[in-house]
Amino acid sequence: xxKHFLGDTTVLTGRSLRHIARSPDTIITTxxxxxxxxxxxxxxxxxxxQTGSDKYVNYLLPGILLITIASGIxxxxxxxxxxxxxxxxxxxxxxPIARSSVLWAHVLTSLVANLISLVVVVLVALLMGFRSxxxxxxxxxxxxxxxxxxxxxxxxxxxxxxxAKSVDGxxxxxxxxxxxxxxxxxxxPTDTMPGPVRAFAxxxxxxxxxxxxxxxxxxxxxxxxxxxxxxxxxxILVVAYLFANVSYRxxxx
Length: 253
Hints:
- This is Transport permease protein.
- InterPro entries: ABC2_TM (IPR013525), ABC2_TM_bact-type (IPR047817), ABC_2_transport (IPR000412), Nod_factor_ABC_transporter (IPR051784).
- The chain is mostly helical.
- It has one domain.
- The protein is built from twelve helices and no strands.
- The protein is elongated, with a radius of gyration of 19 Å.
């Protein structure tokens, strides 16, 4: 690893964060759709959905947080694609910087931007009546899971950002990820679903992550869901990281 990796990554991350600071509508846009879903489901459909929770917003929020992340990572692919098309990568290659710092700068920028969006969504949920009895450790555990999930999806986003042929292609991959929570335990218990749908919902990553976050929020005993959630996050992160780096090496070779 280049000895200047940390310094180069810090400088390039600062560059990317300044771009976001100049266009805060990116973060606002990322948060708007999840907030709209939360308002719709709580105030329109919430009365008809039986979850066993005293407040539907308490049941709903973990899934909304994952949708927020899935919405936000599409901008990583978008920004990466624009840098490639604008010749920024060629300019960086002519400079004595760590090659991997270019990708890590985009990934860390995504992490910061998504954390801000998540805070905005949680604040809106609090205004809507969300309450959690979780202590500091519980909130830190939730934050850790969400950070891992963000990193995993962001490295997935790097791949189309490097390989897409158009701006639309770079960001369109996020749509299936945004709708994956709808076929999970995010909005309704999985035992209310038909057989094949239930089987898929119970064995896809979003359900275990949502269940783990929900248990932490409600101070329920954390069972195997948290280990399954961590395994999914780490597994996706490792595989996506490897594929992203292969794509990057091919792009700059």
